[in-house]
Amino acid sequence: MVIEATAREELDFVVIDRVVHKHNVEPGAVIPILQEIQDTYSYVPPVAIQRVAEHMNIPASEIYGIVTFYAQFRLQPLGKNLVKVCHGTACHLCGAEMVAETLAQVTGAREGETSPDGLFTVERVACLGCCSLAPCIMVNGETHGRLTPEAVGKIMTEIQKAEAPASVG
Known about the structure:
- It is built from seven helices and five strands.
- The chain is of the alpha+beta class.
- The chain folds into two domains: 13-69, no CATH class; 81-163, 3-Layer(aba) Sandwich (Glutaredoxin), CATH 3.40.30.
- A five-stranded mixed beta sheet has the order 2-3-1-4-5, with helices on one face.
- Strand 4 (137-139) and strand 5 form a beta hairpin.
- Helix 1 (13-22) packs across helix 3, helix 3 (46-56) packs across helix 4 (60-69) and helix 6 runs parallel beside helix 7 (149-163).
């Protein structure tokens, strides 16, 4: 398996090498190594998979299999804003699918994706623990509840406006 770096993945291999060697290059350390790499970069870059495989003398495909098997790992960087969509029972019954669909329309990112502009990553979660606010989302740790399509659109539009570069004029 050959993994090539993209222009966006200009990584410092010294950091990756240090993480691998900190865990003594033991096969059982793959998950903690991947967790630390993700903590550093906010995702597991494909070039990091290749580098770890070389150090640990195991196939990159095996490490890729681990990354894709466990939901905790991401192969793409997070957007600037993390949006968690609750799909717990209360939210499901009150319109979580509508919330997710509105988010996809407004941001350009479906659940599990990052918007093309890198502004939003949308994640599906089992429950946010805010059942009385159903349906709800969490944006960067802030909960928004009792949502309608209009409210979802307004929240996302406000974030987009706040993130937009100031116009020069």
